[in-house]
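Exercise: predict the structure of this protein bound to iron/sulfur cluster.
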Amino acid sequence: MIPPHRRHGLWLAFFLHRLSGIALALFLPAHFLVLALALTDPAALDGFLHWAHQPVVRAAEMGLVFLLSVHLFGGLRLMALEWLPWSPRQKTLAALATAGSMFVALWFLLASAQAA
Amino acid sequence: MPIRLYMLQRLSALVMAPLVLVHLAVIIIAVRSGLDAETLLGRTRGSLVWGLVYGTFVVAVSIHAAIGLRTVLDEWAHIRGKALDAAMWAIGLGLLGLGSRAVYAVTVG
Amino acid sequence: MSDGIDNAAATDTLDVRVWRGDERGGDWHAYRVPAAANQTVLDVVTWIQRHREPNLAYRFACRVGVCGSCAMSVNGEPRWTCRTHVQDAARDGVLRIGPLRNLPLVRDLACDMAPFFDRWQEAGGRFVPSSDRHADIAAISPESPARRIADAAIQCINCAVCYAACDVVQWKPDYLGPAALNRAWSLVNDERDAGNKDRLRAVAGDAGCHNCHSQHNCTRYCPNQLDPGASIAGLKRTTMKAALKGQL
Ligand code: SF4
Ligand code: SF4
Ligand code: FES
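Solution:
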């Protein structure tokens, strides 16, 4: 159960930002190791990429793209909130704009993934 | 979090913001065209631009992730003081090492 | 205090749970309290203390939202109890009244406020005069931009509601917290104050304003409608400018 003091948009935005950040940081070393295979073991890299074409892995990949855009937009939101002296009304508008652009971006990502 | 880390955290974020967009575009193009490893590497190898883009990305992400995880360890694992800063350095240098190797592998080979 | 409740021909009763205990542990105790019109949460606590539990520990003074001593956790949310009406705070007909979060407990509903006031000092919350009492009174226009900012943050009653609402205070106990930082921001914009060098250094340190994640729990709960979250953002900008100029 989420305690009442956390049931609001800005807390949720913080939480998504933190979780996506942690997930990306955990994924990063694995990503680097796989890429380095190009140097040490090109055959293994090719094998990995073939394996990576399986639907489950592809879905996971889209998950990462999702995390990356969540973290990117969440971070831009945070810097705008901290650095621009907003009025409360502007804050609401900015939050709506962020949500809107994220929606568009995700739709675009998913659409292009399907087209692939 | 001391102010210097805060500023480095935000600076690395600003550097990465456009690079993330580039990287997202690369992912989409790569997935869409179904390129295999060889073709991809053929395009990145020997390219100074890709080397610079991903080299910068790796430096910025190492700084950004190290400072970010420092905060997480502080707040959620209650690691404090010297141990906390040691963890931050280990994460940052570790990512920098692995990341540089990866960039080298795909752009120089 | 005129509790008036006993005489108010109350037919309805409230289902109230009060946390009783100290740092070593405690428990929720259930009470039925006569309901009355316009009853505040503090009225309920006082009724229990007068009629059921003479040794119940809690704190209040002004009963009109000025002194800041009556804050408690009401159904999990920090509130000034003297200005919180039962009908707004009850959830499913139940009122759960406990001590504030993030502060050591003295007993029952009374917290030890010492850490909260310590943070206030650590953040440079003390006014540092730039002249002495022989000088003329400084002429500051209430309309000047700096004074407006200082005034917007000044009506803090030290109730610690924001401190109890903040997750960063919970996760990083030496964090200065919203009230102290809001106070520092007010003084940063006070033209008569001469303490900014030390103050900016204090709020830029490891326990300072940069720990804030802009969740704005503080702003959401401040009973005086202050905006500590915006004050902290102001401190982030000001300290950053000072750092870039090499003044920190
Ligand atoms: S805005 Fe900052 S100070 Fe206020 S509750 Fe959130 S984290 Fe705490
Ligand atoms: S800023 Fe608001 S909530 Fe915090 S102590 Fe002051 S009056 Fe209370
Ligand atoms: S009793 Fe003084 S503010 Fe509530």
